[in-house]
UniProtKB/TrEMBL annotation, chain A:
Subcellular location: Late endosome
Alphabetized PANTHER family for the sequence: DENN DOMAIN-CONTAINING PROTEIN 10-RELATED, PROTEIN FAM45A-RELATED
This protein's UniProt keywords: Endosome, Guanine-nucleotide releasing factor
Protein name: DENN domain containing 10
UniProt keyword annotation of Nucleotide-binding present: no
Any one annotated GO CC term: late endosome
UniProt GO MF annotations: guanyl-nucleotide exchange factor activity; small GTPase binding
Domain UDENN, chain residue ranges per copy: 1-351
UniProtKB/TrEMBL annotation, chain B:
Family: Belongs to the CCDC22 family.
Domain CCDC22 coiled-coil: 128-604
GO molecular function: cullin family protein binding
Organism phylogeny: Eukaryota, Metazoa, Chordata, Craniata, Vertebrata
Domain CCDC22 N-terminal intervals: 1-109
Any GO BP: positive regulation of ubiquitin-dependent protein catabolic process
Protein known as: Coiled-coil domain-containing protein 22
InterPro entries: CCDC22, CCDC22_CC, CCDC22_N
Length: 351, 635
């Protein structure tokens, strides 16, 4: 959140569910394009036949992060005929905690005053000054919420403990910029799990590959396909049959990882992977090491591998490696394959 | 009593008894008449019994006596439970005769006079004849072929059977004539040219079948439409025409889709399916009429194309091979040639395999590099966009840098002003937006309420339909029973008017009711009087007792009191006697009334005249006896 960055917060929108059972997009500032509006309405739990109530969900669409907070209208209130409402904040950066806090303040303001104008004032204050009064004593400061904290907020230890040595498949897929699809029927579990996966490739610090909450609609899938590699989370069990969407499929409730046929060849693993897997498991099992330390360990190992690859490229022209050069080193086939694809992912391959 | 007599006389007349016109009550019946009536009745009731009895009394006394006895026996055999003997017929009295005749008349079997003289129009006669014939045919039971009698040949033989051959008929639509304007020509056609239904079919036997089929189809179509309309049509809230047209378009679309999907090329279909699709496409061609044959080829499936292609290749290869083979004669040469060919072909094959491998490897490499390049491109684009934005901001900042302090302040004030303006605008927009949203919500509520209302009304309509259906069924049933009862009524004899009887019966019933009321009133009056009498007697006794004591107490002292006491006692005694006399008078009056009634009834019995007759007859019998005895003594 440095001052040189251009505007990060894009818009705020208001969705209401009224006594007639209609869910309407009633207000937004400054504007939200119709496509994004559709997506937001779909993600908002108020349109989903009222089954589950999700207080906070976030997702990624068309390089925009959206954060939706839903609240039930409690008496006494200035809002008549409204049973529930959601506030959708869109922004360019990934920081669920920050926007969750902001949305909570906005929700409370809206419930109290019954008019979005007051809410907008708070939003504009945050936008221009980076600070806003919250009605609990204290204030909301943007600079309290650091992006590093957001990146590290998830629990990598849980991931490793759930999948054990198979976590290496996820690691490989992420390193090779492959497509990972995660399925879980509950959205909160999905968000929690997927948000930590990009931390396995800490050297890139690229969370734009993360699409934690996607529905099987054409618009969203088209947007997904514009990214060459991604981590996508679905609540729809039908996604397991869509083999055109993934190279690795993670069935989270059953804790099963499957590699699709087309990607098996590229994801072949060897001794190198075994080493890394062992390291991950050991590090995570150590009760004294925190999540961030585990991530650091994995990152260190990754850097070793990358350094090794970089060393290989030095001997080639243009510092770009070729397959022939790799073959000269007589690596075991799996390792050679992995290094070849890794070079492509890290853009070290000669074209 | 007169009514009863009239009914009896009428019934007796019907049986065949010759009752004179002036005789209209049983009092005037003579013995002969009685005997004749009874004999005829018995004959009708049970022909076996009555056959031996004469209808008139013979002159001889003993014969009459015998006849009387046998008649009494016959009546008892028929079932008469009362006391009956020869005296009932020879020395009759009214009440007994009346009860006997009533019993016999009731026993008479109900005769149904054939309704012969009804409105005898030709069609009515014809219909009755048809009904009679059908009844007879239906009454004849089905018999297996081996047991058929000539009676059954007409209706149950093989020749009478026809297979159900149906032909289309055309009717002028007489039911909807009021709805649709028929063209004059169509009307003329229907009137002048269209043959009657019986002539429209090719054979006589298929007329009935065709009419049945047409009728059944129309009926079922009407019922189906009714059901569909009631269940789905009403729900869709359209008029019937709109509903029909929508259904038509929907069905057309579906047919089109089905034909298209069946004719569309499918690359993974099996050979059999592709053959059928080519057939279907040919069929579609015939629909379209003129279409060049190569059009068919382009519509064929991918599979058929590859087949054709491979087939032509095979033919080419075969053509290539055959001249090679044809030119050689010697065997050894042939074998050598073949081996050489085999080796060359294997070499070719290996070359091809290695080519394929090379190509796959190249493809893989290219894929990977392609991915890398795309990735790089995307990243660079994004980086460019970000850098653009940053540059814009930096440029503006740099522009403002010279006068940093002021510009900063200006910017801040601008921002604040802008924020305030935006908030202001938002407030204004809110003023517009809130009422609109409220209006929308309100209208939605009204709409859903209306929906509920209309649903409720729809269900009401459905229940009404149900009720209508039930009542039409009931009405049909009731009409049928009404028709049946009317025909029954018409067939009953009309000469005796039932209405007069029913009228009299109802009058009698109301009279009896009135009398019953009066009797109850009188009874209650009597009870009241009796109660009063009891009350008064009691009071009298008590008063007398008290007075008696009082006066007696004083009577010892005073002489006048003693006298008054005596008077009192005498008074009481006399009054008692008076009361007693009155009561006796009443009892005696009642007895007189009873005796008078008894005298009346006894007088009705004609006992005196009967006795005289008996005496006479007795004398006659004694004479006959003596005559017979004398005859016996003589010869």
């Amino acid at each position: 959140m440095t001052a040189t960055e251009a505007q990060i917060m894009l818009s705020v929108g208001l969705i209401e569910k009224d006594v007639n059972g209609d869910t309407l997009w009633v207000w937004c500032y400054p504007s939200v394009c119709p496509e994004l509006r559709q997506v937001l309405l779909r993600k908002c739990c108020l349109t989903q036949e009222g089954r589950d109530f999700h207080t906070f969900v976030f997702g990624h669409f068309s390089r925009t992060w959206f954060y939706i907070t839903t609240a039930e209208v409690q008496e006494p209130t200035a809002l008549s005929k409204v049973t529930h409402f959601s506030i959708a904040v869109t922004a360019k950066d990934f920081n669920p905690e920050k926007y969750a806090a902001l949305s909570r303040i906005l929700c409370r303001t809206y419930t109290k005053h019954g008019s979005p104008v007051k809410m907008m004032e708070a939003y504009i204050t945050v936008l221009t000054k980076g600070i806003c009064q919250s009605d609990e004593n204290g204030s909301f400061l943007i600079k309290d919420y650091d992006v590093q904290t957001a990146y590290l907020a998830g629990s990598i230890k849980d991931v490793v403990s759930q999948f054990g040595v198979e976590t290496i498949i996820l690691y490989t897929a992420l390193m090779l910029k492959r497509r990972i699809v995660v399925y879980h029927p509950r959205v909160e579990a999905l968000l929690e799990f997927t948000r930590v996966l990009p931390a396995l490739t800490w050297h890139r610090k690229d969370w734009s590959i993360l699409h934690p909450y996607v529905h099987l609609t054409d618009a969203e899938l088209d947007d997904l396909k514009t990214c060459p590699g991604y981590v996508a989370g679905f609540v729809d069990p039908d996604v397991s049959s869509r083999s055109d969407l993934f190279d690795v499929f993670v069935n989270l409730p059953d804790a099963v990882i499957t590699v699709s046929q087309g990607a098996k060849e590229a994801m072949a693993m060897g001794k190198l992977h075994k080493d890394i897997a062992q390291l991950m498991v050991n590090s995570a099992e150590d009760a004294e090491r925190s999540d961030s330390q585990v991530i650091k360990d994995i990152s260190t190992k990754t850097q070793e591998v990358l350094a090794h690859l970089a060393a290989l490229t030095e001997t080639c022209e243009n510092s770009k490696i070729t397959l022939e050069a790799l073959k000269l080193r007589h690596f075991p086939p799996a390792t050679e394959n992995f290094l070849f694809h890794l070079a492509a992912a890290e853009q070290l391959l000669r074209i | 009593m007169e009514e009863v007599d009239k009914i009896l006389i009428h019934a007796l007349r019907q049986v065949g008894t010759e009752v004179a016109e002036e005789v209209d009550s049983l009092k005037q019946f003579s013995s002969e008449l009685i005997v004749e009536a009874v004999v005829r009745c018995v004959r009708v009731i049970e022909s076996g019994l009555g056959g031996a009895l004469p209808t008139s009394l013979p002159p001889g006394m003993s014969a009459r006596f015998r006849v009387g006895m046998s008649l009494a026996q016959a009546c008892q055999d028929v079932g008469y439970k009362g006391e009956i003997g020869y005296q009932t017929f020879l020395y009759s009295n009214e009440p007994e005769i009346r009860s006997l005749l009533m019993f016999l008349v009731e026993k008479l079997p109900r005769e149904r006079a054939e309704a012969s003289d009804q409105s005898a129009g030709k069609s009515a006669v014809l219909q009755r004849a048809i009904a009679a014939a059908l009844r007879a045919q239906l009454a004849a039971s089905w018999v297996p072929p081996n047991c058929r009698l000539p009676l059954h040949w007409e209706t149950q033989s093989q020749g009478a059977l026809h297979s159900l051959h149906v032909q289309p008929l055309s009717f002028p639509l007489c039911s909807k004539a009021s709805d649709r304007k028929h063209l004059k020509d169509v009307k003329d056609y229907h009137r002048d040219v269209l043959p009657p239904v019986t002539a429209q079919t090719s054979g006589h036997a298929s007329t009935a079948a065709s009419i049945l089929e047409r009728h059944a189809s129309e009926l079922s179509a009407a019922q189906e439409w009714d059901n569909e309309w009631k269940s789905q049509g009403l729900l869709s809230r359209l008029t019937p025409q709109e509903y029909c047209s929508r259904k038509l378009t929907r069905l057309r679309k579906r047919i089109e889709e089905q034909l298209r999907s069946a004719a569309a090329p499918s690359s993974e279909s099996a050979f059999a399916v592709s053959r059928s699709t080519s057939e279907l496409s040919e069929l579609l061609q015939t629909f379209r009429g003129s279409a060049p044959s190569n059009h068919v080829l382009t519509k064929g499936s991918h599979f058929t194309h590859t087949q054709k292609f491979s087939f032509t290749q095979e033919t080419a290869a075969a053509a290539a091979l055959s001249p090679v083979l044809a030119g050689r004669h010697s065997e050894g040469d042939v074998q050598l040639r073949q081996e050489e060919e085999l080796a060359s072909l294997q070499q070719q094959f290996q070359q091809l395999c290695s080519d394929v491998d090379q190509l796959t490897a190249d493809m893989k490499h290219l894929n990977v590099t392609n991915a890398q390049v795309l990735d790089e491109l995307k990243q660079r684009e994004l980086g460019n966009a970000e850098d653009d934005e940053k540059m814009q901001v930096k440029k503006k900042t740099v522009d403002l840098l010279p006068d940093a302090e002021n510009n900063l302040l200006k910017l801040q004030s601008l921002v604040e002003g802008g924020a305030k303006r935006v908030v202001n605008l938002a407030a204004q927009w809110e003023k517009h937006r809130a009422p609109l949203i409220d209006e929308y919500r309100r209208l939605k509520e009204i709409c859903s309420n209306k929906d509920l209302e209309s649903n409720r009304k729809l269900s009401e309509i459905k229940s009404l339909h149900e009720k209508i259906r039930v009542s039409t069924e009931e009405a049909k049933k009731k009409e049928e029973t009404h028709k049946q009862l009317v025909t029954e009524l018409e067939s009953l004899p009309k000469d005796v008017s039932r209405s007069a009887y029913t009228q009299r019966i109802l009058e009698i019933v109301s009279n009896i009711k009135k009398q019953k009321e009066e009797i109850t009133k009188i009874l209650s009056d009597t009870k009241e009087l009796q109660k009063e009498i009891n009350n008064l007697t009691g009071k009298l006794d008590r008063t007398f007792a008290v007075t008696d004591e009082l006066v007696f107490k004083d009577a010892k002292k005073d002489e006048s009191v003693r006298k008054s006491y005596k008077y009192l006692a005498a008074l009481h005694e006399n009054c008692n006697q008076l009361i007693q006399t009155i009561e006796d008078t009443g009892t005696i009056l009642r007895e007189i009334r009873d005796l008078e009634e008894q005298i009346e009834t006894e007088n009705g019995n004609k006992t005196v005249s009967n006795l005289e007759r008996i005496l006479d007859d007795y004398k006659a019998i004694r004479q006959e006896n003596s005559a017979l005895a004398a005859k016996i003594r003589e010869g």
